[in-house]
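User: I'm putting together a teaching handout on how multi-component assemblies are represented. Below are the sequence lines for each component of a complex, exactly as they appear in our records. Could you produce the 3D structure of the whole assembly as structure tokens, so the students can see both representations side by side? Please keep the chain order the same as the input.
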Amino acid sequence: MPITVNDRTHDLPDDPRVSLLDFLRGHLGLTGTKKGCDHGQCGACTVLVNGMRINSCLSLAALHDGDAVTTIEGIGTPEDPSALQQAFVEHDGFQCGYCTPGQICSATAMMDEIANGWPSDASAELTGEIKPTPEEIRERMSGNLCRCGAYSNIVQAILATQEAQS
Amino acid sequence: MTVHFKQDEPDTRNLLDQGSQGVIGTAMSRPEGLAKVTGTAPYSAEYRFDDCLVGVLVTAPFTKGRITGIDKETALAMDGVVAVIDDSRMTARPAQGGAGEAPQQSPRQICYYGQPFALVVATSFEKARHAAKHLPFSYEADDVSDIPLDPETAETEAGDGGMQAGDLAHAMATAEHAVDVSYTTMGHASAAMEPHAAIAQWDGGRLTVHASLQMPNYNISELADALDLTEDKVRIVSRYVGGGFGSKLGLSEETTAAALAAMELGKPVKVVMSRQQVFQSIMRRSESSQRVRLAVDAEGRLTGFGHEARVSNLPGEEFAEPVLQSSAFLYAGENRLLALDVARIHQMTAGSVRAPGEAIGMPVLEAAMDCLAEEAGIDPVELRLRNIPEKDPGKGLPFTTHELADCLKKGAEAFGWDSGPRKPRQNRDGEWWIGTGMASAARVHNVAEAKARVTLNADGTARVQSDMTDIGTGTYAILTQIAAEMLGLDPANVMVELGDTDFPRGPGSGGSWGAVSIGSAVVIACDAIRQSLAKKAGIDADDLKLKDGKLQGSQPRSLSELLDGGNMSEEGHYEPGDISDDYTSSSFGAFFAQVRVNRHTGETRVDRMLGAFGFGRVLNEKTARSQCLGGMVWCIGSALTEALHFDPVDGHLVNCDLAEYHVPVHRDVPDLEVMLVESRDPAASAVQGKGVGELGMCGGAGAIANAVYNACGARLFEFPMTPDKVLADMPD
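Assistant: Of course. Below is the structure of the complete assembly, with chains in the same order as your input.
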């Protein structure tokens, strides 16, 4: 089976060494997904695979036979941005912009994880409803580094989006 | 036409406040924001060219010596390999910021572990990476016991910034209160999120390089020099830069290598450094050892001020971390001694990492001031207020605007600073000790020569062009606002094009000088256009009121009507002048932090932090605040976690990735508060503003250190203050 990326199907690469990240960037030209470390340490390459966030640099493209991948390009466009993307602009949740697609993909999935009651280190209880507090968001977003230091604004953008949606 | 303005005197025209559009200073969102949040903003490695080859750098696995042979044949026999580039023109280390000439070349001579010496070019990244990893080569490495690696024992040279006045030793001996304290700070990495990257194209006559660089205005000279080309044969494009923080000030190794490969092969070549290569072969901030001596009289007024530091760099490098830069003028004291030494060691190039100098000099000075406040029994805020000098105590020059007192007072009030007697270990929440600390902020203000072209189009829109960059600093936003304000346009009708050396030369992004320097050039160009418009309208330029694309008056006329099918284009040229002989100029601020320290583990968490900053005019409230926020995040990193660790035997960098070099993550950073203490500083620039990009990290690590002491009683003399050190120093 081919791989589906942003609702379009593609053949997998011939070279088994190609990471999902390099497949997206180099083969499909979806350069919104960024390479910051290639070692799963920075989160800039975060994409959604079957709705869940992963570091695409840590995964070989060949392992995603039949999977549905959503990249930043599939989350919104300049003409039709998602609410979270708009909130990032409004709250200045970025500076250089290089970690930003990863932050937004990560936060998109993270909001679902909270809604589905997945606990984190910052959760008071392991079961029951999880409140999207700033501390919950910080804990769950800690895999996405931002060297410009836009963290406070990113959290504000996520909180504003959460509030608008609830 | 070019309009030139050299700043020999304060610019009291204050042109920006004459505008009517009302957009300058506002919290306008970045015009490139949607491109960034949707992943459509192209960074250097993301341009697509047909037949683009991929190069991977090969680096030295030893510290000093030379490469004696490279087995190209074996590499060329590998799948997909097209070439092995080992041209002697390859650059062996990055250029220092503003060098304007090629850095060290002849890469077969190895001066530090991880130095690139060859480039393997192949048809895909995977093939190039494989061949680079397996490229056979031979080398002669010097005996590690002969290589100077320890800055404390290596040979030293005197660095810039030293001065002596009066008799510090006597002042110390006769002081009512005095402290004599020594500190160490460990090295830092810029660790910009985008690794260094370049795609080079050669059309047989001209080279075009898309590269991630902060200062194309200097980088074009560096690259042309390295390649023996004239600058008209080189074009550098850096429209989006994924963070720089000093690491992309100078031409770096991948750009030269990509250019040489493209010229040899006649095809586009892309080279992106791995994260490990960025750590190993780009700039480090030097470690430092520092001694601070402070002497005060009975009223807590400084009579003696000493700050001495030792930093390091490779032999032959001119840069020495300017640790004493703000110590020269921040506090009073007639008996002064400043001295800087540079130890010559073989680690990767030491150069500019965000706020070179103040980033480590200010936290140490501010930690020492906290010791002095305790010794003298004076509130730390009050101690600083008592020691703000009337004039630069070293040079005797007046200051341009001086916001320190204002920032200290306003910051203390907003933070809820308790000015009562201070004693450590007074507040505990379960297993956490809680305490507060504060520090002053200072960062020297610089301007640089800058040119920008502004074109007012016949349709009433405007275009701003310069090779200046936006590295996340907000250049696209502030130049949009400046042009919109000056020309009376909706910001949506202003297009800013940056990062292309085919445009007029900007100042580059570095040293916090970018916004005010290029902003001044845009103001100058727009002012010339305003003069032409006034002439065309038959009115005095002082009476020209432009708003929403219209000439205001009893009968408003649209700009397009006034332009009558033509356009107006001016190049603004801003040049620093003799005013620097007449004033000392700096941005100022104050940090206040509350931390909690775990009594069992020594872990420190920052609960809250406030920074109040004064840097003249605020060009954009949103992006200026973001710059300050970012600086404060760096304060947290340099206070608590960031440290380059080198192997003491062979000097290689041990923690060369983002798992082992700990930059702050989301959960390390509380909701930070920024106060902008605005003023107008006509002596600083033609926009009445000073630098802000680095101010937010100039001292804040000291506030955190002082809060750690106030919380748990651990008075540390080393940065970063990792849990092991805090725990070892915490009283039982």
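A couple of points students might notice: The mean pLDDT of chain A is 97. Chain A touches chain B through 65 residues (CB under 8 Å).
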